[in-house]
Amino acid sequence: MKKLLAPTLLPLLLLSFHLGFSQDFSKWEKSIAAFETRDKEIKPPKDCLLFVGSSSIRMWDLEESWPGQPVVNNGFGGSTLADSIHFFDRIIAPYQPKAVIIYAGDNDIKKGLSAEETLKDFETLSGKIRETFPGAQVLYIAIKPSQSRWEIWPEMKKANDLIAQECAEEKKLTFVDIAAPMLKDAEGAPDAKWFVEDGLHLSKFGYQAWTAAVNEALPE
Which CATH architecture has domain 27-215? Predict the structure, then answer.
């Protein structure tokens, strides 16, 4: 008789199969532990704006963008939606957010996920957030069109379109479309003014524009 897999192992195995690439969650332990140490030293504020995701979040000066407002930055560079799902109980669940703002999906597509797989991971993460915090708004910042990853923009745009449709159908989900204004025109690559020298990460101008877009989408 074949030995059955323990039920607790099945979600992790299915996730690994779904992702299509090897996941080493242990590489993020230092970053996650740093969030926990920070929160022990300074208790996180209630009704905060909780930002999670990859380097575009990590590098965002939230205090400058939202002076005097309670903000928490739990971005860790290079991460994917699956990483935020894996660490959900440590980087999202302990807080009392008014809104959760996500930027992830960029690295997901870069690592080989399809638009449909990226949508499924967004559905999983947003579902966990809404289940844990029914009153919180979930804002998904669109995957950005960047100079350095322009060759995979078609798949990124497809993922954006799928996630935007999902958000339009759910009351507590908001799609923040920063992609359209970043493009020179319908066919052109994004303008260099949005980026620092690497053509991937945002410039000061880029963050100012993203701040305005998030502010417009935030619930009052």
Answer: 3-Layer(aba) Sandwich (3.40)
